[in-house]
Amino acid sequence: MKTKQYHVEFEPIGRRGECPSDESLLEAAHRLGIELVSLCGGRGTCHRCKIQVLSGKASSPTASEQEHLTPEELANGYRLACQAYPLGDCTVHVPAESLTAPQRTQVEGQQVKVTPNPPVRAYNIEMSPPSLSDLRADAERMVQALNQQRGVSCRSVDTEVLRGLSPLLRSWDWKAQLSVRGAEVVAVLPPASAQLGLAIDLGTTKIAGYLVDLGSGETLAAQGIMNPQISYGEDVIARLSRVSRSPSGDTGAQKLVVEAIDRLAADLCAMIEARPENIVEAVVVGNTAMHHLLLRLPVDQLGRSPFVPAVSGPMDTKVRDVGLHLAPGAYLHTPPNIAGFVGGDHVAMLLATDMPRRNGLVLALDIGTNTEVALVRNGEIASVSCASGPAFEGAHIKDGMRAAPGAIERLRLVDNSIEYQTIGGQPPVGLCGSGILDAMAQLYLAGVLDKSGRLGDHPRVRSRAGQREFVLVSEEERDGRPAICITQGDIRELQLAKGAIRTGINVLLESTGCSEQDIEEVVIAGAFGSYIDVSSAVTVGMLPPLPLDRFHQVGNAAGTGARLVLTSMGKRSEAQAMARRIQYIELTTAPQFHDTFIKATQIG
Amino acid sequence: MKEELVAALVKLERDEVLGMVTQRIEAGEDPLGILEDCRQGMTAVGDLLQQGDYFLAELLLSAEIFKGAVAILQPHLAKSHSSQLRAKVVLATLKGDIHDLGKNILATLLQAQGFEVHDLGVDVPPPLVLEKVKEIRPEFVGFSALITTAFASMKEAADLLQQAGLRNGLKLMIGGGVTTPIVKDYVGADFQTLDAMEGVNYCLNVVGGR
Predict the structure, then answer these.
(1) d(CA B77, nearest CA chain A) in Å
(2) Domain total in chain A
C-alpha cells in the first residue's frame, strides 16, 4: 500500500504537521514535540496515550482499544494514540492527563569538598608571530611556546582544534589559552577564558546537568530536564527492545538524548553568560542502558538474560563522536558500570557518599524503576539491583502520576477524613510516589489494610468494576470529576515493588551474614527517595525497622558523584578501583530468593 | 464435613485441615473424595487470588497445606486407585527472561487441580522445550514472560514444536505482564492471559473438568 500524507492538527497545543498514513498518531505527536505519555512504548498496553479525534478519519479501533475504552468514549472519538493511524486530515484533542506534565526534576545534592585535580588544565601563552626568519607552523609554534613558557609538553593537538587554529591565533594577536588534557591540546580559547566542565546524571526519566568551574571545582549552574527518550518507552527494557526492533530507531533515541544534553548545556551556559565552547570536559553517569544508548554501544544483549553490558570499564570518547556540541576537542568521560542493571550512576552515588571510607555497616539505596542497593561493611561493598518497577513513579497505579503539579505528595488519614498536600498546592489530580507510599502506610496503620495487603471495610472503601478501592478524594470533592482512589490492585502492585526492595536488602544482609539491627546508617539517594516520608517506608516494610535518626536522605548523590569525577582525577581513579571491588549479587539466583520475596511482599 | 474442610483450607488453618484429613481417612472415607475437597479449597483460594482478596503469601501457605494433605492421602490413594491425573503441562520462562513469579503461581494452582506439572525453570532455550515435549507428550505447554525480549524465544519454541509435528494435539498458552492478544497471534498460541486463575480455568475447560 502506498503511504499517503495527511495533515494532522493537535489541539489545544496547536501543533500541526504532515503525517504519513503508516505512522501512528503517537509517533506523529512525538515527532512534532508533543509529550504524550507512553509507558509501554506504543504497544497498546498501558492505555495512557488517550486522545480524542475531533474531526477527520482515523483507522478503526483495535481490540485493545475496544477492551479498554468505554463505549461512550469510543463513540466520542476517544482513541489510544499508539493504535490509531490517520486515514485523512484530522484534528486531534490531547487531554491534559495524557501529557507528560512538567515535572519536578531534582538537581540538589550534597556538596562534597574535594581538592580540584581536573583532567584538563588551562595555560595562557603568548607567541611571537611568524616571519620570513621564523617559518614554524602555527601548531608547533603554539606547542613550543607552551613548553617554553609553562613547562608543559604536549604531543598532539586535536584535529578539530587544528582546523580552526590559524585564523584564531591571528585574530587574538598570538595570545591564547590552551586547554591541555594529558599530552593533548583539546581546546584553544581566547586568553583568560572560563574553563568549564559539564556533569550530567542521565536518568531513565530525568536528566540533571551541572556546569562546573574546572579550576575551583565550584558548581556555577544546575538544571534538570526530562529525558526525551521517554517516547521510546518509560522503562529501560521497553526502550531497549524498541531500539533493538527498529533498524533506524537506535540513532533516533541517541539523537534525542544528545540534543537534550546540548540544549541543557546551552541553557546552563546562558545562566552564567558563558558559551558551550568553554566546556572542555564532560562526564555522564547513568544506568548501563542509558550509557550504552548514549555511546551507541550494542544494546540487544543488554535487554535479555543474562543482561551483559558491551563494556564495563571507564571510557573517554570525543564529545563530537557522540554528537555533542561543546569545545570541539573535548572528551566525554563515563565512569565504569558494574553490571547490566547497575551502572555508573550507582558508582557515582557510592563515591559521593564516600562509601569506600565508611566504617561500620551502612546501607545505601537509590530507589527508582530499578533500585540499586549497596551494603557497605567497613568499605567492602556488595550491590544488588531490584526490579522494583515503576509503581512508585506512578505507573500501573490507577490514579498514579509523576511528581508534577497537582500530585498528592503527602497524605494522612485522620479519623475518617483525608488530609493531603499536593505539589504546587494545586487541586489534586492523582498520586505521586511519596503520596502512594503514605497512602499505603496510613491505611495499614488505620487497620484498613491487613498484613496480607487485603483492603478491609471502611466507610471510604467501596467496590467498583469488581474491585475494592479506598476513596482518597471523592467525586463530590472534585466537583464531579472521577474520584482519586487507591485500589486493591494498586496495593498489590505496591506490595510487589516494596517487596522487591526489601528482598534486595535482606539478600545482601544474608549473603554478608549481617543482621539488620547492626545497620548503623541508611543512605537514601535519588529523587523519589528524597521526597518520601521515611516513616511510611518503614511502616509498610520497604525499609528495615530502625530508629528514624539512622536514615539520611541525600538528594541526587549520583549528580554529586558525576561532579566529583569531573573535577578530580583522584576521584576518577577511586571510582575505577571501587567498581572493580564491588561484589555484584544477582538477586534472582540467590538462594531462598523466592521465599524471601514472598515474605517481603507482606506489609509491616 | 466437606464444607468444613474446604472452609478450613480457604482460611489457611493448617492444623485444622490436616487434622480433618487424618480423621476422615481413619474413618475409612474414600481418599479421592477427601482429595477432591482439598482441590475445591484450592480452587476457592485461586478465586480469591483472582479477586485480589488473597495475594502471594496466602497462595504459598495454601499450597503448603495442600501438599501436607496430599502427603497424608498419598499412601491410601495408591492402595485404592491409580492416581488420577487430569493432564500433563510443561511450563517455562524462555531464553532472555528470568522472571518466574507468574509461572510459579500457575504451577501451584495447576498441581492443586491434579495436573502433572513439569516446570523447566527460567531462561530456558527453546530446543529444551521441544525435547521435553517429545519425552512426556503433554496436553499443555505454557510460556511466561515479563519482558518483551522473550517474545522471540516464544515464537522460536512454538515454531520448533510446529516443525516437529508436535503442535497439533497440544494447547499452547502464554502469559505474563507484557503479553497481549497480538503477541498470542504472533507466537501462534491458543491462549493468552495475565491472570493465573484464568489459565487454570482454561486448562480445566479444555480437559472438561470444571
Answers:
(1) 30
(2) 2
